């Protein structure tokens, strides 16, 4: 059991699937030597060529331990093709059909974390491979249709179940995240957690310098990262960026993951220059430690508390500040990204007798010592090797 646990810690699910599906074919040459009738006559040379090919896939996967989306796409696809080729040279049709069924394993395991494009590509390869082999094995059209229909279900149904389970777990996790106020990936506050604390933050600003600063940091070209490298790599980028922001945020500030690839920092400041220097420090920290850049928009304003009719509620104050900070982010993107735009606005009149609608609910728990990303994947540093320079995303 200890040996199995050590192996599971070293390899992720995708690598294990590739090792298991290709490893089952490795003893075939020995079996063919001991029982030559298991292979079609004259196919021993082809068997050794396919075996060498599959052994290469197995060895590369064993050495890499944790495959990137791109590596898994290539090695998984090659493994499927190798398994199909092996089933073509087996003399016994039943043995060939059973070996062919192994191609269903790679798309199903890949569906746990892979992007939709990668899942569909592996499915297409597996289905095409199954059709080619069954055309060779079937002795009639009806036999082929029945066999292909059965194998099609064997390939598709596990992938569908894995994707459905994955979506269900993501929905549950998202619901719990909203309830607890903590982002499970980064360990920062999420949007709801920040809004719960909004009244306290405004009160702290009023009793200190009387000026508030809000920064929005948006990861540049994040959609491209997800499309080219997969969502797992995208999560790694967000984890690296959030760590840099949290490490270099000024003492007393509040940092949260406000949206998908957007981070927010609330800080009590003295003037616009102080907020601009803070924004530049965070922007430079992300560029230096993460494989991406961020566009930063911020707004600085004096805060005045009042109970008069012109005073705005906590939610209105925060919403107005965030709206203007978002406009600054948009301008930063138009300026070429990886830049900072800060605006100063007139006094914000806050009705300090109002609370955010979220504050009436239970406050968020303290951020956990380790995010769920670190718990599940154990090695977020794997993504430190992914660098898109030059020409950052």
CATH superfamily of the largest domain: Reverse transcriptase/Diguanylate cyclase domain
Q: Major β-sheet, in short?
A: 6 strands, mixed
Secondary structural class? alpha/beta
Query: What percent of the residues sit in helical stretches (DSSP H or I)?
Result: 55-70%
Low-pLDDT parts are: 363-393
Work out the helix count: 16
Q: What is the global morphology?
A: elongated
Radius of gyration: 28 Å
The CATH class label of the largest domain is Alpha Beta
Q: How much strand content do the residues show?
A: 5-15%
Number of strands: 6
Assigned CATH architecture of the largest domain: 2-Layer Sandwich
Tell me the CATH topology of the largest domain: Alpha-Beta Plaits
Distance between the termini: 43 Å
Number of domains: 2
Average pLDDT value?
80
H and E string = HHHHHHHHHHHEHHEEHEHEEH
Explain this structure:
By secondary structure, the chain is an alpha/beta fold. The chain has two domains: 173 residues, no CATH class; 183 residues, Alpha-Beta Plaits. It is built from 16 helices and six strands. Helix 4 runs antiparallel to helix 5. It is elongated. Its EC number is 2.7.7.65. Keywords: Membrane, Nucleotidyltransferase, Transferase, Transmembrane, Transmembrane helix.
């Amino acid at each position: 059991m200890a040996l199995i646990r050590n192996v599971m810690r070293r390899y992720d699910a995708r690598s294990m699937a590739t090792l298991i599906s290709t490893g089952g074919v490795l003893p075939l040459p020995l079996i063919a030597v001991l029982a030559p009738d298991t292979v079609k006559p004259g196919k021993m040379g082809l068997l050794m060529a396919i075996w060498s090919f599959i052994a290469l896939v197995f060895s590369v996967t064993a050495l890499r331990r944790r495959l990137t989306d791109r590596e898994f796409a290539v090695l998984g696809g090659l493994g499927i093709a190798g398994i199909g080729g092996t089933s073509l040279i087996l003399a016994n049709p039943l043995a060939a059909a059973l070996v062919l069924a192994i191609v269903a394993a790679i798309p199903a395991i890949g569906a746990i974390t892979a992007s939709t494009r990668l899942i569909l590509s592996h499915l297409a390869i597996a289905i095409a491979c199954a059709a080619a082999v069954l055309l060779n094995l079937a002795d009639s059209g009806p036999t082929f249709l029945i066999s292909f229909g059965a194998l099609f279900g064997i390939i598709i149904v596990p992938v569908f179940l894995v994707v459905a389970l994955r979506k269900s777990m993501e929905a549950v996790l998202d619901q719990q995240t909203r309830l607890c106020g903590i982002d499970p990936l980064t360990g920062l506050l999420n949007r709801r957690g920040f809004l719960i604390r909004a009244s306290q933050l405004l009160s702290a600003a009023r009793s200190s310098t009387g000026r508030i600063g809000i920064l929005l940091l948006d990861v540049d070209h994040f959609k491209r990262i997800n499309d080219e490298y997969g969502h797992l790599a995208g999560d790694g980028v967000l984890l690296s960026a959030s760590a840099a922001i949290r490490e270099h945020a000024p003492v007393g500030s509040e940092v949260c993951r406000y949206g998908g690839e957007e981070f927010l920092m609330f800080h009590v400041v003295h003037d616009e220059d102080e907020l601009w220097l803070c924004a530049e420090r965070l922007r430079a920290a992300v560029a230096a430690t993460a494989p991406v850049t961020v566009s930063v928009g911020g707004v600085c304003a004096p805060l005045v508390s009042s109970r008069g009719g012109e005073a705005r509620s906590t939610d209105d104050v925060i919403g107005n500040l965030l709206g203007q900070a978002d406009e600054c982010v948009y301008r930063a993107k138009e300026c070429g990204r990886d830049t900072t735009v800060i605006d100063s606005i007139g006094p914000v009149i806050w009705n300090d007798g109002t609370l955010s609608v979220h504050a009436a609910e239970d406050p968020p728990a303290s951020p956990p010592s380790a995010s769920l990303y670190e718990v599940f994947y154990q090695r977020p540093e794997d993504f430190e090797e992914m660098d898109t320079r030059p020409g950052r995303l």
